[in-house]
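note to self: dont lose this again. the chain is below, predicted strucutre after it. 188 aa total, dont forget to put it in the shared folder this time
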Amino acid sequence: MKVFDFDNTLYHGESAVDLALYMIKNNKKIILYLPKIFINLIKYKLCLVDKKKIVAAINDFLNNVIRSKEELYGSVEGFWEKNRCKLDRKMLSKINSDDVIITAGPDFLINGIRDLINTDHIISSRLDTDKMKVAYLNFGENKVKGYMALYGDKRIDYFFTDSYNDKALMDISARVYIVKKGRLTRIK
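---
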């Protein structure tokens, strides 16, 4: 079985950040949160993130910037029309129907392109949009917990990711590839 991270592996960029940028045209309040978004993105890239702080930052954004769940859901189709070109066709072609995509991104966002990703096996973060808060953050060791909950001890033959934030998944994979701009480097 192959397992794929999503952002910067199958998608060139951070899809949740790109969604926030896309939503600015209809919600100017997002501009006020851009510094926080980019500071957290830098911390993520440097593997200096704390899950509790990420959840608090996302909840703050949802409660103080996003006006409704309809605003979130209503942005997905237009977002993917604009950003579909950021999907890495070569990487997507490696996905078989029994392979798994594991992403820290929210379920409603990746569900917008299920027809393009060749598998229904997706483990993602979940938002409680009625309460406008994170229900489950699929990040770090939570990615392993989510995988194990669904697949038990089923072996991961190949794992593709862009980040050492996925070390917990790397540890349970037979072969690991770091993906940078579509180039694969085997590290395990």
